[in-house]
Design goal:
Protein name: Zinc dependent oxidoreductase-releated quinone oxidoreductase
Bound molecules: NADP nicotinamide-adenine-dinucleotide phosphate
Distance between the termini: 15 Å
Number of strands: 15
GO molecular function: NADPH binding; oxidoreductase activity, acting on NAD(P)H
Strand content: 25-35%
Pfam family, one: ADH_N
Keywords: NADP, Oxidoreductase, Plasmid
Number of domains: 2
Structural class: alpha/beta
CATH class of the largest domain: Alpha Beta
């Protein structure tokens, strides 16, 4: 038996319960992990409230990111033994392989030996944010030295990962946040420029900071009305990578900017990368290099104890965080 977070109905953070559950033996090519830390994602709040790409069947587990020790390996697993410290790439289904628990089962193919310099809290905060940002910026956007890249929801975990990756490749990260409350933090996190979209003219500021170059890559999980100013400030031939839907408002299609500048608007889910072994290996190698060199370092907004999973989800939805929320187990 292990303590596992489950929910029996859709709703707010209060539907999450910690229950004693029998966690089965790992199946063929699976591994059971004794979890030490969890990384929280917006996706879990969306699953819990019924707005995710997966639909919960009750009782449902949840969670996409964990780090801990291998506890037991299933038949056919090679390369890992009990006691190995590991972190886990996000599984394709968090209903099938939920992370929130003292014990959790994952396909062995998702296990990574992270650099020993990382704490379990940091290791649980690596894979979703850096894989998502790497996939959108480098794999799809082709981000390179000298490019101006606009990063919206910049204080989110993925946004901060994107700032670090942009700096790693020599691009110029322009952070877009809603108010100036997080401006100083974003500058300290490596943003070259910070624009508060609810307080400033976003199009004018993007054009001012990028000058004659324009914004070559936009990395956006917000959508909604900011599509127009984002597209208006883009360079000819630029690409807008859309990877979320945080805005509750309708997203306009910026027809004339797209037409006149041959813009590409590209939807992107990290699952695309996870399902492609070649691209995934390149992504992992890039991220591990960055972690070892120190160019990439997860920013932890706050760590909650396991018993406070409800409070951790409340904090996630408060939008007050700056970086990744983790839970220690
Ligand atoms: N496509 C994929 O595969 C993929 C993978 C991972 C995450 N995502 C998406 O990436 C986004 C960030 O995820 P995360 O887990 O890193 O989130 P997070 O850390 O919880 O991000 C929260 C931040 O997003 C910004 N935000 C929240 N609501 C907003 C709104 N209505 N309008 C504008 N900005 C808003 C706020 O930043 P400011 O205070 O700075 O404005 C807030 O601090 C989510 O939309 C998530 O679904 C997508």
């Amino acid at each position: 038996m292990a303590r596992v977070v489950r929910f029996h109905e859709l709703g707010g953070p209060e539907v999450l319960r910690i229950e004693d559950v029998h966690v089965p033996e790992p199946g063929p090519h699976e591994v059971r992990i004794r979890v030490k830390a969890l990384g929280l994602n917006r996706a879990e709040a969306l699953l819990r409230s019924g707005a995710y790409i997966e639909t919960a069947t009750f009782p449902s587990g949840l969670g996409l990111e964990a780090a801990g020790f291998v506890e037991k390996v299933g038949p056919g697993v090679q390369g890992f033994i009990p006691g190995d410290p590991v972190s886990v790439l996000p599984p394709k289904s968090m209903i099938r392989w939920p992370a929130y628990g003292e014990l959790a089962i994952f396909p062995a193919a998702l296990l990574v030996r992270h650099p020993p310099s990382l704490s379990f809290e940091e290791a649980a905060a690596v894979w979703m944010q850096y894989l998502t940002a790497y996939g959108g910026l480098v794999d799809i956007g082709g981000l390179r030295r000298g490019d101006f890249v606009a990063i919206t929801a910049a204080s989110s975990s993925v946004g901060l990962a994107a700032i670090q990756i942009a700096n790693m490749v020599g691009a110029i990260p322009v952070a877009v946040t809603r108010t100036s409350a997080k401006r100083q933090g974003l500058l300290e996190a490596g943003a070259a420029h910070v624009i508060a979209s609810m307080e400033e003219d976003l199009e004018a500021q993007l054009k001012r900071v990028s000058g004659q170059h324009g914004i070559r890559v936009v990395f956006d999980p917000v959508g909604g009305p900011i599509f127009e100013p984002l597209a208006a400030a883009m360079a000819w031939g630029g690409i807008l990578v859309e990877y979320g839907g945080l805005s509750p408002e309708k997203t306009p299609f910026p027809l004339f900017a797209v037409l006149s500048k041959s813009l590409t608007l590209r939807g992107y889910l990290v699952h695309e990368l996870l399902a492609d072994p070649g691209r995934l290996e390149r992504a992992k190698a890039f991220i591990l290099d960055g972690l070892v060199s120190g160019a990439l370092r997860p920013i932890i907004a706050r760590a909650f104890p396991f018993d406070q999973i409800v409070e951790a989800h409340r904090f996630l939805e408060s939008n007050e965080q700056f970086g990744k929320i983790v839970v220690t187990v």
